[in-house]
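Fold it.
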Amino acid sequence: MSGVLKRILAAIVCVLCAFPALGQTLGALARFEGGQLTDRWGGAELRLEISQGVPWRVFTLTEPNRLVMDFREVQWGDVDPQSLIDAERVTSLRMGGYRPGWSRLVADLAEPMTVESAELVTDSTTGAARITVRLERTDQAAFAAVSGAPRDRRWDLPAPAEVVEIPPRDPSRLRVVLDPGHGGIDPGAEHDGVREADLMLTFARELQEVLRRAGGFDVVLTRDGDYFVSLEARVALARDAGADVFVSIHADALAEGVASGAAVYTLSDAASDAASAALAERHNRDDLLAGLDLGQSDDRVANVLMSLARLDNAPRSAALAEHMLAGIRNAVGRVHKRPMRSAGFSVLKAADIPSVLLEVGFLSTAEDLKNLNDPIWRQGMAAGIRDGLMEWRSEDTALAPLRRN
């Protein structure tokens, strides 16, 4: 067997431990109990200790070069991933939830290295498992040749199902899809021990309750736990839910400067300012940092048609942003000094759903962080968003006969 073929087989290995049944459910979550990532002669070695064997797989991806490992759910605890690195050939390591029931580890490689070997060994007495992955140095061309996310029916999404027409709903009810940003392996901004992913999920749940209590709203969350959802999947979830409105919720942190107050973003190829462009670029890299490679469609006809649909839908999104800001200003008394902004956020690219991205505040600003941690303040913010949605619905309904069908 050639060396290249060995590396290809190693890159798509999926060890099912000692369990013969593919779908067998383990009795409890596996716990991470230690590990280390070290340089070795000609490459690097990753060793992980977990409390029991689990189904797993390993592969590599390019742009940037990285090693990706997926597991049946592993409880990582409060380990600092960077503390496991004792290597110059690996620049960073992160781990967390990938999707419900599954965990992911991603190691950023300082140079191209392919998987030389990957094995899991279990202790016959305790059931504890050790996973060892050895990497060997190679050139970029050889690395690219064996890299790519493997397609496997045991791990990946099934083929697209037949599209079923969404049944008609009561036109007096507004279906809102709330998208708490980040999650799982992508915690978002972090400041003083507060993670954006956790805080935005809490706020999304509170806002969901406020809208439901108001009546006339059906509310769906793109995630209801600490797990990763790709940007593409968030938009797909909104469409599958038959969303009338899509609201992505974030609370960023600035590395430099000071900013405070809520701001609402709409989609635009030309960002309203440099800060908005940088923010969009950072958000759009979430999928890449989580180990995903997202292909870009080259269907020019489809792109033109979607661009036309977005152009027709843009005034509705802009009106949604204006009404939300008015509601927030009335409820909490203050918004960002330039609260209406635009940039090329991938999560806002649904062609047929009015969509906005709401920066509730900035974790890096002391006053905003205090407010975001205050449940009473968050209730006021949620009430302002509710009022804005209600005003937008009334206006949008009145203008509906004037729009092209």
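The longest helix spans residues 300-332.
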